[in-house]
Amino acid sequence: MNEENLRKIQAITEAALLAAGKPLSVDQLRDLFEEGERPARQVMEHVLLLLEQSCQGRGFELKKIASGYRLQVREEFAPWVGRLFEEKPQRYSRALLETLALIAYRQPITRSEIEDIRGVTVSSNIVRTLLEREWVRVVGHRDVPGRPAMYATTRQFLDYFNLEGLDQMPPLSEIRDLEEIGREIEKNMQAEIEFESPARSTGGNGEDSNPDNAPEQTLH
Amino acid sequence: MNEENLRKIQAITEAALLAAGKPLSVDQLRDLFEEGERPARQVMEHVLLLLEQSCQGRGFELKKIASGYRLQVREEFAPWVGRLFEEKPQRYSRALLETLALIAYRQPITRSEIEDIRGVTVSSNIVRTLLEREWVRVVGHRDVPGRPAMYATTRQFLDYFNLEGLDQMPPLSEIRDLEEIGREIEKNMQAEIEFESPARSTGGNGEDSNPDNAPEQTLH
Amino acid sequence: MTEETTGSTTADESAEALGAPAEQAPLARVSGKPVVDLPRDLYIPPDALAVFLEAFEGPLDLLLYLIRRQNMDILNIDVSEITKQYMDYIGAVEAMRFELAAEYLVMAATLAEIKSRMLLPRQESEDEEDIDPRAELIRRLQQYERFKQAAEDIDDMPRLERDNFVASAALPRMPSSQPHPDVDLREILFALQGVLKRADLFTSHHVERERLSTRERMSSILSVLRDDQFVTFESLFTPEEGRLGVVVSFLATLELVKEQLIEVVQAEVLGPIHVRARAV
Fold first, then answer.
1. What is the pLDDT of residue C256?
2. CA C265: distance to chain centroid?
3. 3 state DSSP class of C62
4. Less Cβ around it within 10 Å: N or C end of chain A?
5. Ramachandran bin of C42, using left for φ above 0, alpha for ψ from -120 to 50, beta for the remaining angles
6. Which residue ranges in chain A fall short of pLDDT 70?
7. For A60, which of B10, B18, B81 is closest by C-beta distance?
């Protein structure tokens, strides 16, 4: 594949991505070429690399996301570009974001499981909005009475948030594994019981017996 | 105005034109900048010139039109880009297939001869479609009043159907067999439908709850 | 916000309980004014109370807020203190006769249960199997806090229409390309079958099996002939095709003569034969 040819494929790729206005996969891009001239996958990937480099210093960049590649305005220019649009970007309520977070991190998950964790009912409005935006979808039904729907996030969700996969989501906040906390609390209770009965000498579990850490100490 | 500043204005201009999805005037572009940093008209026009130059060899170009400027996919790439929007090809009508069949088996043949056999008129559309597809061509004119065109199939026709010559076309005697095959296919389809309907009703959301089918973007 | 004490439904001690206000963003806005803290004395103007109720995503959220205000570690909750504050808050809302979501009342009951257990002398190991309600509450608070944080993280992630915009360019004039349908050879046969059936029904046309190669040769001969120029008869034949090919070409030529599609001329006996298409 000579350089001129590569340059042409690169220009066609750029043209197609700008014409599509949505992500295109490597195969969708390859399908733009007739059989005889269709670049191999590796060639196409190389071309995408060249395209990415050629956008340096420009107003837009090549972004790889879940459904493929997309050309998008560089984030640093959002303050200027945002002025094009009269409407303010939509804000999402905490209730919607929390529901979305639970679906994203705990999928597949049912509505009642979401409600268990949030401690409040999830309004049908929120679920409908998420489904309409195609950020979540029903992937099945839990095999329990009522067969409640199980929700999971979609590729469009990843695309919207500039992600290639769920593993690119920010990690859940750094608190210890909940199981571990449960065990610890139980141990603490145990220690207290032991403390109440004979002596504390047995409570040699390092931090468990640390007074700052033992919740029971502050109870009144 | 230093060069770095110009480059930034150029990138913002490009970003805005790509995000707007409609033409922007010089003043609309200038309005993207806050008062303190807003480039003068001449500066903006200079920047647009720089932007135009920077698009050389790329998939898109800057176009000046009545309502302002817009970035547009280069026309030379339309053949490739056009495949993005190709609709699914429709099926040919029965009338067209019959006409084609008669030309293939009775060539050279005139339109009125085809009409005689089919018992209905042959629309000009059909003939034009077959000519445009280069499956048939006019090979002469019958020496009768009106000197009607005689149609025959082409090399492209043979190529499309992987035939070396017309003698490789299935003989008409196979039509009897075909009838049987047709009946058999219909019977099979009938059986399939009968097989499918009861299964459907019990299957419910069987495939939905298939765990392999669940969230398509599982963590990797 | 006014600091009235009249009409307060709860004791003044709650003011101390709420402690020093922590530095934070406004909880809500009431009549345009930012509201940063719960009022010190829990007298809340009715319109403000409604806003407070909406500011929390439920009892867990409210509890987390109260815990944070006390600078408490979740693992270290002072249940008595938090319960009192929670009850004060619930009491205030109820006194204003606002509909209180059931979840808030359930939580109040849970807190009351925990507090009462704490007051009672511990039963030796008899209900060890029971889930400790306090541990369960802590677990739920921890769990909720994680996802509350995750929701904030998602909100901070760059997203389309706010931080990113899809780049698109206008389309040039596009060739109107109508894709061609695919056809199976058998479809043509089926079509022919249909025609022939109808032909049998409606006309006396009798279509026999044709010798396709002759037909094809007729077409190809016609295609090379012109009406303004003679070619030699021999040029219609391709000796490399062998005897059969020559015979087919000959039959095709005869058929074309019979159908008066071509003109064959011989100037003298045994002289060269010339062929041309009939003039249009």
1. 87
2. 74
3. helix
4. C
5. left
6. 1, 174-220
7. B18
Q: Answer yes or no: are the C-beta atoms of B32 and B12 closer than 8 Å.
A: yes
- Other Cβ atoms less than 10 A from the Cβ of A116: the count is 14
**pLDDT tens-digit readout, B148-168:** 999 999 988 988 888 888 878
Measured CA to CA, the distance from residue C64 to residue C70 in angstroms comes to 10
**H or E element, residue C165:** none
| B200 vs C217, more confident | C217
Sign for the CA dihedral angle at A26, A31, A32, A34 comes to: positive
Q: Nearest to residue A45, comparing CAs of A26, A31, A28? A: A26
- DSSP 8-state secondary structure symbol assigned to residue B90: P
Contacts of C219 in chain B (CB under 8 A): 107-108, 139, 152-153
Question: Any chain A CB within 8 A of the CB of C139?
Answer: yes
Q: What are phi and psi of B69, to 5 degrees?
A: -115, 150
Query: pLDDT at residue B203 above 50?
Result: no
Q: What's the one-letter identity of residue C264?
A: V
Question: Which one, of C142, C104, C157, lies nearest residue A153 by Cα?
Answer: C157
B33 part of contact set with chain C, CB < 8 Å: no
Q: How far is CA A210 from CA A188, A218, B72, in A?
A: 10, 13, 68
Structure tokens at B56: 């050389």
- Average pLDDT value over all residues in chain C: 74
Q: How far is CA A39 from the centre of its chain?
A: 32
Partnered with residue A152 across adjacent β-strands are: A137
Instruction: Identify the burial level of B33 via C-beta atoms within 10 angstroms of its C-beta, where 0-12 means exposed, 13-18 middle and 19 or more buried.
Output: middle
Q: Nearest CA to CA, how far is A176 from chain B (Å)?
A: 21
Extended strands (E) in B54-181: 60-65, 68-73, 109-110, 136-141, 149-153
Residue C257 at interface with chain B, using a CB cutoff of 8 Å? no
Coil, strand or helix at C101 = coil
pLDDT averaged over chain B?
Answer: 81
Nearest to C58 among A72, A105, A118 (CB): A118
Q: Global pTM? A: 0.62
Residue C9: pLDDT over 50: no
Residue B142 has pLDDT above 60, yes or no: yes
